[in-house]
Structure of ATP-dependent zinc metalloprotease FtsH:
Amino acid sequence: ESKAKLQDAEKVDTTFDDVAGLKGAKTELQEIISFLKHPDKFDSLGGEIPKGVLMVGPPGTGKTLLARAVAGEAGVPYFTITGSDFMEMFVGVGAKRVRDMFEKAKEKSPAIIFIDEIDSIGRKRGAGLGGGHDEREQTLNQLLSELDGFEPNAGVVVMGATNRPDILDKALLRPGRFDRQITVHLPTQEHREQILEIHAKNKKLSDQVDLEEIARSTPGFSGADLHNLLNEAALIAARYKRKSIEQQDIDQARDKVMMGLKREGIRLS
Ligand code: ATP
């Protein structure tokens, strides 16, 4: 099972400039960045940094991006696992993977650990279909014991992401664990435009393309959907062998992305 193998820490160069909007989240995370840059300074002042920060919000709204940006801004290694990877593991493998990751992160501290889809591990225990899910419970128990096992200000900050905070085991949210919550929202029209601006930087758009107009016509789109839209438009333009992406390519791409969202029954009504 290759997914069970621990990936080495990544050095990321994402910064807050890559993240449009989400001002509140950025402000909250600024404190953690300062801490990761100078853990010793925080210690001497007696301030305690949260060990775990839970980012809550719909899919594609920038939770992963924020976690990477925190690592990039602070210049610390970034370790990541995805909750759903654990579903196909044999009993004991997930727990070992969690243990190994914390060990490595502590070795390389200060560091960020990011756990995407934390609800797949952190679902309420004993609530599975037809009784316990041994593998998941062991993994969750390991995660809880790792969180409890290091001192506050040890230099490791764990960031988790979920769009289902309601199904999380309350044990995860206790003080000293994921006791800080950050909510991210779908972007407003203004933020959609800013997201488009960021992702248009490496695209060749015709002068006729109006990002404000695209932002206006994409209510309900997440950052990921907008990223997707520009990629699709580039592919369509390539298919027509155009020199740059035209408004009609954007329109076609938007229809395609919208159809996908409708099919999945999400957001757009
Ligand atoms: P999921 O819950 O599906 O894991 P997520 O909230 O972690 O989603 P990301 O993976 O961070 O979402 O976002 C997907 C992509 O969408 C990003 O890589 C980025 O290209 C784009 N994106 C999302 N939000 C923003 C934003 N605020 N600014 C710029 N780009 C964004």
In short: The chain is about 45% helix and 10% strand.
